[in-house]
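Async update (no meeting this week)

Hi team, since we skipped the sync, here's where things stand on the single-chain job. The sequence we agreed to prioritize is pasted below, unchanged from the tracker. I ran it this morning and attached the output directly underneath so nobody has to dig for it. Comments welcome in thread, and please keep replies under the output.
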Amino acid sequence: MTAPVQANLSSRQAEIADLVQASGFMSVEALAERFEVTTQTIRRDVNGLCEMGILRRTHGGVEPPVSAGNIHYSTRQILNLAPKKVIATTVAGLVSNGQSLAFSIGTTPEIVMQALSGHEKLKIFTNNLNVAFTAAANLSFEVTIAGGRLRSGDRDVVGQSAQEFFSQYKVDIGIFGVAGVDDDGTLLDFHEEEVAARQAILANCRQSYLVLDHSKFTRPAHVRGGHLTDVSHIVTDAPLPPHIQHLLDGSQVQTIVGEDQKGEA
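Output:
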């Protein structure tokens, strides 16, 4: 198993990827000014990002690669990386040694698993090979994975076999993300199979942790699957948008906003 993409990038490269994804285009000169480095340094950074398929060169600068659906997994591994790490650290503080956890697909659950690497005797059930390989590095963990068709780019298993896999167990905590959240609180993904696997985890856990960073509240996706009020916990990196918080008022959902290492929410 190769190292996570984020491990091979500098913090500046990760921030460059975030900036370009958010703006749609940035010139080399603007990036050099933003980071107070030379244009030659920026070109080296963006060349590396382009070689990995995270960005695409265009006249005078860089832009996100063209995509008709979800962003490629290797790109999602580094986008909003700092907020995802805040979320992961927060979740790790809520998990006790010896608990059983079901993990879904996606980069945020993967980073949560990385933050749990110092725990002991966790029982991990997942259809996410990135999670499984990370967990397997801890010899005290017991790791069980779903069988079935592998999606090579995402390194996960979806379909009927994944749904049946999760239905065999009753775990302490289910940990899953989503592609986006609609304004009415509907949870969104890009494929029906992704929704079905997530719903199977939700139906077979005692506590459910929806892990998502602030960008998911403005991100469109087209497959509906559940609602924010279906989960027991929402773990995020920033206060929820007011209209989303209003939807949760009076519900049993506990919202947990993580703090970065400086103690800032």
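Quick observations from my side:
The chain has a mean pLDDT of 88.
DSSP finds ten helices and 15 strands in the chain.
Reply here if anything looks off.
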